[in-house]
Amino acid sequence: MRIAVLLKEVPDTYSDRTMNLETGLTDRSGDVVADEVGERAVEAALRIAGSAGESQVDILSVGPETSVGSIRKGIAMGATEAYLVSDSKLVGADLTLTAEVLAALVKRNGYDLVVAGSSSSDGASGVIPAMVGELLDYPALTNLTDLRVEGTSVAATQASDGAVVELACELPAVAAVSDEFPDARFPNFKGLMAAKKKEINAVTLADLDVDPEDWTHARAIVVDIAERPARERGEIVDGNSQAASKLVDFLESKNLTAKEARS
Ligand SMILES: Cc1cc2nc3c(=O)[nH]c(=O)nc-3n(C[C@H](O)[C@H](O)[C@H](O)COP(=O)(O)OP(=O)(O)OC[C@H]3O[C@@H](n4cnc5c(N)ncnc54)[C@H](O)[C@@H]3O)c2cc1C
């Protein structure tokens, strides 16, 4: 079985994450790492490959050239090949373009199963797996807490509000794993050495025949970005005799009728 894992590099969640207000882009000048949910996706893919017999797990990523360090983590864990699509025309790529590029790479390489994270820790849109599925015409199983593959049949468990949903489909398919999936394994020495030497396959938009300036496709453009205003300090109401009436005044000022509360 050929399995692709969608893995992106993100600013480290332990550091201060900000947007660059000049460029409107994610500030990547601090520490960057492979996204944790993406690492869980690599782990899930390796486990499926391990029980499926002859299989290959490849890492696919869209991002700056500097992402190679994070992608190598997937190789160190046990993935075979890694492909990074990096192109100056992808700076500021929106969701649609990112999904188009990933889908084109999946199509070009040919995979039975695409495993992604449910939602990245930086953009957190939570839609790329479904968009990739739609573009490839593959069923997309999202927000999963469990994923099983037997032969060409996929069975998965999805966490939903107040319910546990069992899903099934046939390969090829896209599966998006949630944070409830097992932690990524620690790479062993052999894996670390292999990752160090491994050449990351560089892919361009021309290779994939994707045109970011094709405005017949849906594209969103950032037109402005501003720092979120700091939260105003709230008023502290002491528990004195005025407290109840102050609270009622506050509710009324917000149009939250409190006439009955006053009486
Ligand atoms: C108009 C516009 C402009 C933007 N400009 C920028 C920008 O300049 N810089 C920037 O960082 N972001 C930018 N973004 C956000 C950018 O589109 C998203 O970072 C990216 O498309 C993925 O979104 P996400 O991480 O929210 O995806 P999610 O749907 O939350 O990701 C879910 C999963 O999909 C996979 N995945 C998502 N993205 C990738 C990827 N790139 N490579 C491999 N796998 C992936 C991973 O498995 C991930 O866990 C822009 C968005 C818009 C709308």
Automatic annotation (TrEMBL):
Pfam families: ETF. Residues 23-212 form the Electron transfer flavoprotein alpha/beta-subunit N-terminal domain. It comes from Corynebacterium qintianiae. This is Electron transfer flavoprotein subunit beta/FixA family protein. The keyword Transport applies. GO terms for molecular function: electron transfer activity. SUPFAM superfamilies: Adenine nucleotide alpha hydrolases-like (SSF52402). Belongs to the ETF beta-subunit/FixA family. Heterodimer of an alpha and a beta subunit. Its cofactor is FAD. Keywords: Electron transport, Transport. The electron transfer flavoprotein serves as a specific electron acceptor for other dehydrogenases. It transfers the electrons to the main respiratory chain via ETF-ubiquinone oxidoreductase (ETF dehydrogenase). GO terms for cellular component: cytosol. InterPro entries: ETF_a/b_N, ETF_b, Rossmann-like_a/b/a_fold.
